[in-house]
Design goal:
five-stranded mixed β-sheet; Spore Coat Polysaccharide Biosynthesis Protein SpsA, Chain A; 11 helices; 305 residues; 48% helix
Length: 305
């Protein structure tokens, strides 16, 4: 049986090319690489077929977002009759030694023996080698709300928590980790029905993780395995992305917590945007950057209300 490495692309061919080049030496008897392309216009599909003919490419007719595209690639492999017993979801903006995925696959088996039902992830670093904390703690509603008033660095520390080293092992236990790189048993993907296709972008991995946790799965970080995630530096301030993020949050909170979840999401967003709009609006008359920032949070505030 093989391990299916599933990658989603949407333009950005150079980073995809580098990622696939990193994976080129993986033994094809043990691994199959599947790319779901979200209707790229930069030649991604043609370039993959020309430069990496062993890679399975599943072109989509439109941008499906992250979750639906992953589902499409997994289904594509099944439709092609390819058997696999593990799935590794991997961002295309990652760089790694392919041996890391060989080790991560072995670690999945080891973790299943030690801990039961698991999703295993590597440690993640920025391009400069600094740690990129893509893991998260379980926090209550009060802690979540307080983050609306904290600086981003302080809020991140509360959200991330501190993973716990498992005795006599190189594994760390965390509540969940973002889907930069997930190694999981294939039957889990089937049991959960893949990603929720109502979510276009943001929170789709948290929704998947929450459903996995609800049926007894745990997230474990294998400290022996490390990859670089190029997209984990500083995100650009983009209103459309922020709106999409907030809408996905409200949907997922409502899905898992009902009406209380929707109210929690809206209360958080009101407090967050008000806390950021008020001080920056003072300087908006003198600085274009502050003016744009204040305008964006005013829009987000209106959306939450």
């Amino acid at each position: 049986m093989k391990t299916a490495i599933v990658i989603v692309t949407y333009n950005g061919w150079p980073i995809t090319q580098n990622c696939l080049a990193d994976l080129a030496a993986l033994p094809q008897d043990d691994f199959v690489i599947a790319v779901a392309d979200n209707a790229s216009t930069d030649g991604t599909v043609e370039n993959i077929r020309e430069q990496f003919p062993h890679v399975k490419v599943y072109p989509q007719t439109e941008n499906l977002g992250f979750g639906r595209a992953n589902n499409a690639a997994v289904q594509g492999l099944k439709d092609d009759g390819i058997k696999f017993d593990a799935i590794c979801l991997l961002n295309n903006d990652t760089r790694l030694d392919c041996d890391v995925l060989v080790e991560l696959r072995k670690s999945l088996t080891e973790a299943q023996t030690r801990f039961g039902d698991v999703i295993v992830v590597p440690t993640v670093r920025n391009s400069d080698g600094s740690p990129q904390h893509n893991y998260f703690a379980k926090i209550n509603a009060l802690q979540f709300m307080l983050n609306a008033f904290r600086l981003e660095s302080s809020a991140a520390r509360h959200l991330e928590g501190t993973p716990e080293l498992c005795p006599d092992s190189t594994f760390y236990k965390t509540y969940w980790a973002s889907a930069v790189c997930w190694m999981m048993p294939a039957n889990l993907y089937g049991m959960l029905g893949g990603f929720d296709e109502k979510i276009f972008m943001y929170y789709e991995d948290w929704d998947f993780a929450r459903r996995a946790i609800n049926i007894g799965y745990g997230f474990y970080i294998q400290s022996k395995c490390s990859i670089i995630h190029l997209g984990g530096g500083s995100a650009k301030n983009n209103l459309s992305r922020a709106l999409q993020h907030d809408r996905s949050q409200e949907y997922v909170f409502g899905k898992h917590m009902g009406p209380k979840g929707i109210k929690l999401s809206r209360a958080f967003r009101v407090c967050r945007s008000f806390a950021r709009f008020l001080p920056t609006s003072i300087f908006a008359l003198f600085n274009r950057k502050f003016a744009e920032y204040a305008k964006n949070h005013l829009t987000l505030l209106k959306e939450a209300l």
